[in-house]
Amino acid sequence: MKKIRQPIIAVLGHVDHGKTTMLDRIRNTRVAEKEAGGITQHIGATEVPIDVVKQLAGPLLSLWKGEIKLPGLLFIDTPGHEAFTSLRARGGSLADLAILIVDVNEGFQPQTLESIEILRKYRTPFIVAANKIDRIKGWKITENEPFLVNIKKQDQRAQQELETKLWELIGKFYEIGFQANRFDRVQDFRKELAIIPISAKYGIGIPELLVLISGLAQKYLEEKLKIEVEGPARGTILEVREEIGFGTTIDVIVYDGTLKKDDMIVVGGKDKAIVTKIRALLKPKPLDEIRDPRYRFDQVEEVSASAGIKIAAPGLEDALAGSPVIAVRGEEELERAKGEILDQIKSVIISTDKVGVIVKADTIGSLEALSKELHEKNIPIRKADVGNISKTDVMEALSVKDEEPFYGVVIGFNVKVNEDAEEVANAKKIPLFIGNIIYKIIEDYEAWVKAEEE
Ligand code: GTP
Ligand code: NA
Ligand code: MG
Question: Keywords in UniProt for this one (predicted)?
Answer without folding.
Answer: GTP-binding, Initiation factor, Nucleotide-binding, Protein biosynthesis
